[in-house]
Amino acid sequence: MSTAPLRPVAARRATFTDNNDHSAECMFGVGAVRDAWLGHGLRAWPSDRTTAESAVETLYRRSGFREPEFVWVPSPPAGSDLIAVEGLATTLSFAGDGVACVSSRIATMLSESRRRMDTLIARGRSDWPNERRAIETARTQSPDDSARVGISPNAIIRAAVWDSLRTSLFDGVAAAIRTLMPAVVGGVTWYGQQEAHRVAFYDTYRRFGLARFRSDDVELLDLHTAVTGATGWWWAFDNVCVMAERPTALHTEPIPGRVHNERRLHHPDAPALEFEDGHLLFVHHGTIVPDWVVLEPTVERIARERNVEVRRCAIERIGWDTYIDEAGLALIDRADDPGNVGHTLQLYVISDGWGRSDHILLAVNGSPERDGRRRRYGIYVPTRISSALDAAAWTYGINGTDYARLVRRT
Question: Which InterPro entries has this protein been placed in (predicted)?
């Protein structure tokens, strides 16, 4: 069940409260609310079917439809398969000028509610140049630090809640799951736990008393809250609702350089995402890779791999030094990195087996990762470049002479 308790419904018109409490303590709470919703979005255990079905039944009734028959499947891919096999997409009904099926009505109802709440909290101010700059600043520092320098609650909540959760869940986890499915499922897809950013954003406003929404919008927000906190993806058809279980395993790590607890999928030696029916994904620091990259990377497999990103991940798995030795890469040039004191630039020619002739520059991050380490990485550079300094300069769009004058690079 959701850890974001449902709040009593206030039967009154919406108002934007004049809450001027922008203190650091108040904004510190924003991060705590965000993290609670992040926990829902990353949860990997069985759905709370009773809560999910109850909320969806109410959405059906509010849309003018009878309660559906619920069909549970072990994963979103299993849901898309079921929809195709049973021909559920063909049950979409049309009337008047548009689609009159339950999924369309629910989507319209929720969209109109969000639009009313957006208007109320003046989220449109994010289009103002000053507000956009405030959001950009808020993305780079903690909510309490933003509050201390006078950044508005709107900008802080947008950066620390909406943007952060969307990055981790919708653009991260949900996008990864979509790679397991056909491009078109045949119905409106609701992403359940991975839509937490939509719910958490408005929930934060009401928790901190920054907005009082209309009673009908509060009811819809509560229903959306219940579904998001209780289950994974789902599809509504006129008589049937297909509900997908949450993953059985979901592993992430912090995204380097981000300050609002943004996460990305990753597991060093096992699937980062797995469902009960065996659908799974191996993910290396946010990049989806074949299982061999995580389980058994070898120089021979790397040589046969055509995808540059997958190849990079596999090399990182076995380590650059090991790869260079075992693959027999020939060193062309080496130089101290002027912008990264204490580290060197190394230029290699790629040996046979890659299907093309290339040079690769091995360098070390100019800035440390979140854990304090500096990551070693390789960059492909044109074969006409034979100097390590020129190769590093090429990646910045400058010449080797200018690069040699650098005091520090990032």
Answer: DUF6745 (IPR046633)
